[in-house]
Amino acid sequence: MVALLPQTSRAGDPCLLFGGDYNPEQWDEAIWAEDVEAMVAAGVNLVTVGVFSWSALEPSAGRREFGWLDRIIDLLWSKGIAVDLATPTASPPRWLSLAHPETLPLTAAGVRLSPGSRNHFCPSSTAYRAAAASLVTDLVAHYAEHPAVQLWHVGNEFGQVCYCDSCADAFRAWVKQRYGTLEALNEAWGTAVWSQQFSDWAEVLPPREAVYVVNPAHVLDWRRYCSDALLALFDEQAALIRAGDLLRRPVTTNFMGFYRDVDAFAWASHLDVVSDDSYPDPGDPDSPVIAALTHDLTRSVAGGPWLLIEQATSAVSWRPHNLPKSEGRMRADAFRAVAHGSDGVLSFQWRASRAGAERFHSALVPHAGTDTRLHRSVVRLGADLARLAVAGEPVPTRVGILFDWSSWWAAEERGLPSELLRVLPQLRAWYRPLWRRGLAVDIVHPAADLAGYDLLLGPQLFLLDDAATANLRAFVSRGGTLALGSFSAVVDANATVRTGRFPVGFTDLLGAGGEEWWPLPEAGTSLVGELSGHASVWGEWFPLVTSPDDEIHPATVIPAKAGVSPTDHLDDEIPGQARDDAGLSVIPAKAGISPTDHLDHEIPGQARDDTDSSVIPAKAGISPTDQPDDEIPGQARDDSDRAVASSDHEIPGQARDDTDSSVIPAKAGISPTDQPEDENPGSSPG
User: Fold this and answer.
1) pLDDT on residue 5
2) What number is the average pLDDT over the span 653-671?
3) Which of 216, 235, 365, 481 could form a Cys-Cys staple with 413, CB 3.0–4.6 A?
């Protein structure tokens, strides 16, 4: 096993990282020593510093103020706490915006945004990039030899989009490099439609606000460019760090899961450590499965261990209604991330802010101080994470769900048969039954190396280029099982519709081909054929399947050759359990993945060993009676025995979420008496 950050190993053994963002510039220096002592008591071993410190480090152009940062980093390291040092370039100071208003982003409608928030910069602005590079260069030179710095953190939550003339120039250069000639560009974008042909490169502009629907190929390439432009910005700062840090400490930035504007697959090889922010909604009963899916995406992007670099200990401050977390929920969220491959749990932030936009965002130390329910639960969590020996362990999988940012972008543009068929809801619907059964799942790009997978699921691969199509066909020819969902293999890399029966490129494997996409009426329709029940939103017309009423109902599920083909096509959006009990419940078995192959649901260590889901608990000497009674308010507790082997029964709502917080501590020898029962908000404690 290899630690994500070797410097944080204990006696040569990798350990989980625990801590979070720390913003000492928001506090009087007199409180710093108290903070650091409390960090030590809580088991903190890594803090992120400097994310939003540009104005504190450079209060005016060219003036450096590193003294306060020196003192806090020295203090942290004197107590054995490592630092994830950020480049503070996500929030430019006001003096830069006033001196160079062109650094501020322009919306698609032509509105220049103002400073006063954060992320207020144009990615292509030369003035912004020069100022950022100057500060990063000096920051790296100043701290390159400091032993506390064990991780570099570039920017924060990249996602800025700008439509200004500078971005138009950069986009034009990107398009020219991609297509080479105007003839190739006109062909790729299909500009014969609506008289949109380009006769000069100067005519290529961002897809700004227009009278009606903008060319979808134009918008698709714009989205690709925007992700690449942000990556270039990351690379610029990462290169300065790598050039100045002779110790070659790893470089990261924080992704945001399924965030539309950043193609994490395209970024992955540029990061030394893949990190992610995770903020599941305590008020959403689906949040455990959504979080698990997002963690699997991040692990897949990383190709192994990753880092949960931000999460909330309790309520956030940016939803319309912000529910707090019980201790059980906080623990479950933390252990779930570890179960899905994270080598640490970091939170935003150490001490709750008194001012600013995030003053009501929870923290490891709330406004009420350390002698509180929340902070005591943080201390217990830190102690329990320190006892887990799972850092660096892989999560072997045989099942992959296919996903591609370009396909997602293309599938949700205007001018489609339906705006109700959305990619992420489909992805979650296909993932949920696998998660319920404890199957470990990777999220895989369709053009990636597919060796090692036995089963691939494509919930909605609207866009498949030629290389990806060939890759999936080769996977099937090698004996793999592929299932494609609604509205898949519809367009090529340029969002041009593929002609012929669909899914184009796979009809020979299916033994059938669709003729017509069939959005369903608002009330939905009854299923016919192999399934019973009710379908909503979407259907597809496959004339091979008939019914007494086939003039009304499209086909539902089309397996080729009596269901023995390695390729299936699920072409209805079937709500909830209907899909689970229908196609998706039998596909793993068809791929040779039996219940004995699946992983214990949401259990670190077990989730990192798919050879035998009962081996690791036995090694740890854990029996079912070791599970503590960690209640989650308002939800039934999951009493199922997850320490032996997970079963296929449904676990409602938060009950399944409770699994991590009850079983994982037991693996580390933590008994029920080590964890107090959760307090129920809205009732008197005790």
Assistant:
1) 73
2) 37
3) 216
Query: What is the per-residue pLDDT across 576-615, written as a single tens digit (0 to 9) for each?
Result: 333 444 456 566 766 667 543 433 334 333 334 332 222 2
Provide the token pair at 575. 């709500």
Return the half-sphere exposure (C-beta side, CA atoms, 13 A cut-off) of residue 71: 11
Contact criterion met (CB below 8 Å) for 626 and 666 = yes
Decide if 60 is inside a domain: no
d(CA 137, CA 685) in angstroms, rounded, equals 53
- Residue 379 belongs to a domain: no
Q: Is position 151 within any domain?
A: no
Query: For residue 549, what are the CA distances in angstroms to 166, 221, 517?
Result: 58, 43, 18
Identify the pLDDT of residue 586. 60
DSSP-assigned beta bridge partners for residue 306: 342
In a domain, 516, yes or no: yes
Smallest Cα–Cα separation from 219: which of 408, 403, 413, 411?
Answer: 413
Catalytic, 327? Answer no
**CA 215 – CA 601 distance, rounded (Å):** 44
418 lies in which domain range?
A: 399-592
- Dihedral sign, Cα of residue 488, residue 489, residue 490, residue 491: positive
- The total number of structural domains in the chain stands at 1
Q: What is the pLDDT of residue 620?
A: 33
In the set 25, 58, 310, 573, the catalytic residue is 310
- What type of residue sits at position 674? D
**Catalytic residue, candidates 157, 187, 412, 677:** 157
pLDDT digits (tens, 9 = 90+) for 538-570: 888 877 544 444 443 333 333 333 232 345 555
Q: CATH no. for residue 522?
A: 3.40.50.880
419 a catalytic residue: no
Question: Residue 525 corresponds to which tokens in the numbers above?
Answer: 């329709």
Instruction: Give yes or no for residue 181 having a pLDDT over 70.
Output: yes
Instruction: With a cut of 50, say whether residue 163 has pLDDT above it.
Output: yes
